Amino acid sequence: MYVFSIAVVTGGNKGIGLEICKELASNGVGLILTARDEKRGKEAVEKLTTDYGFTNVIFHLLDVTDHSSIASLVSFVKNQFGKLDILVNNVAIPGIELSQPIDEKLPQPERAKLFQKYQVQSYQRAFDCLKTNYYGVKNMMEAFLPLLQSSNAGRIVNVSSTRGQLQDLSEKLRKELEDIDNLTVERIDQLTNSFPKHVRDNMVEKDAAQIRCI
C-alpha cells in the first residue's frame, strides 16, 4: 500500500487542470494526470517533469463518458496504491458552439459581446455536455468512493464555472435545487435528462429562464 497522498485529476493536460496538477505535485502529492487524448496527456506529464523536475506525476488514459475507461483507472489506482486521497473532477466541455470564430486577440469586453452574439446551443451539444459534465463527474465519484473511503482524509473537488450559477434558473427551479434536505439524486437526474429535450423543443426560456450547460 502507498503511504503518501494520491490524487487523480481529470482533464489534467491543459488549462486549469494542468495548473491543479502543478500545484498538487509541488506539494508532494502522488499525482495521476488523466486525459482523453493519450498524446496530449503524456506531453503534459513530460512538461511537468522537464520544466519543474517533478518525479511524482504519471499519466493514465481516461474518458469520463466511458464506464470501462473509468473502471480501468479505478483498477489501476487500487492495484498500485490501495486508496485515493483526492479526486479532482476538472474535465468539462462547453454546452454551446460558436456560429463564427472569435479573434482571441480582441479585448475581453469585445470578445464577450461577440460570444453572446454567436453562441448556438443544439440538442446534440447539450446532450454531450451533460454526458461529460454531469454524468462523467457523477460516475467518477461513484466509482472511486470505495478507494476514497480507504483514505484517512479522502476528498472530492468538483471544478465548476459561472455558467452553473443557480441565479440563471427560474425562481421555482432555483428554490427546488436549494432545498438540499428534500432534493434527491433521482430528481436531479430527471432535470438533467429533460434539458436536451427542452433545447430541441426550444422551451429552455419558458421552463427555466436561460438554463445553461456548464
Walk me through this protein's architecture.
One of its GO terms (molecular function) is oxidoreductase activity. Belongs to the short-chain dehydrogenases/reductases (SDR) family. The protein has helices at residues 15-26, 38-52, 67-81, 108-118, 123-149, 171-178, 185-200, 204-208, and strands spanning 6-9, 30-35, 57-61, 86-89, 97-98, 119-120, 155-158. The chain is 51% helix and 13% strand. A 5-stranded parallel sheet has the order 3-2-1-4-7, with helices on both faces. It is an alpha/beta fold and 214 residues long. It has 2 domains: 6-92 and 135-159, Rossmann fold (3-Layer(aba) Sandwich); 164-214, no CATH class. Helix 3 runs parallel beside helix 5 (123-149).
Q: Which fold name is given in CATH as the topology of the largest domain?
A: Rossmann fold
Task: Tell me the fraction of residues in β-strands, as a range.
Answer: 5-15%
State the separation between the terminal residues, measured CA to CA.
37 Å
What general form does the structure show?
globular
- Order of neighbouring strands in the sheet with most strands: 3-2-1-4-7
Residue windows where pLDDT falls under 50 for at least 5 positions: 206-214
Mean pLDDT: 88
What is the structural class?
Answer: alpha/beta
Order of helices and strands: EHEHEHEEHEHEHHH
By CATH reckoning, the class of the largest domain would read: Alpha Beta
Radius of gyration equals: 19 Å
List the domain count as a whole number. Answer: 2
Largest sheet: 5 strands, parallel
Please name the fourth-level CATH homologous superfamily of the largest domain.
NAD(P)-binding Rossmann-like Domain
SS element count, helices: 8
